[in-house]
Amino acid sequence: MFKVASLYIRIVDGFNRGLGKIIMWGVFVMAAILLWSSISKTFFNPSLWTLEIAQFAMVAYYVLGGPYSIQMGSNVRMDLFYAEWSVKKKAWFDAFTVLLLIFYLCVLLYGALNSTAYSLGYFGKDSISFWWDLFVTFVTGGPSAASEKLGFIERSPTAWRPYLWPVKVIMIIGFFLMLLQTVSELLKDIARIKGVTL
Asked: Whose CA is closest to 101, among 113, 111, 109, 112?
């Protein structure tokens, strides 16, 4: 079992570490967008797209950087008692809190799936069946058949009116990767509890 867990941890940690190191550069993307926003407002006509693109870039930076942050243990922790505990006691406590985080991420992922389905024109209550139908239609009929499954595509109510589904898809990907990373952290905690080195 621990060989499979070790392989899972290696794959998930490696992917999220690589993605996190790329996403770290997103802070410069956001700075460039906001700099252009300031320049265009001062010297030219203000750009309509800068505020929303900056918000979308922030969502991508935060959500796609989340798995790497979880991996590095960059979350806020109260060390009043925790710092004095043994490694095994810390692992028990971390395993319990990771289970709570897994539940929370499952709720966020389900909400992101529903929200994205809504942004693609699905107004029903069972978004999972919508995603399954969309996938089956795409596999059997191709992109043109899948596009017929879509309804009214949601747009932002601002003057620029960008489509909202791309940023919502980024949220789905980010929450899913965070979920994979928390399972990796849970496996590491179980190994520490058992006294196994992965």
From this structure: 109
> For residue 185, how many C-alpha atoms fall within 13 Å in the half-sphere facing its CB?
29
Helices (H), the chain: 2-23, 26-43, 50-72, 79-82, 87-119, 127-147, 165-194
Question: 27-39 burial, b for 16+ CB within 10 Å, e for fewer?
Answer: eebbeebeebbee
What is the C-alpha separation between 109 and 11, in angstroms, rounded? Answer: 21
- Give the Cα separation of 21 and 156 in Å (integer): 30
Segment 42-72, tens digit of pLDDT = 888 878 888 889 999 999 999 999 999 999 9
The model carries a pTM of 0.88
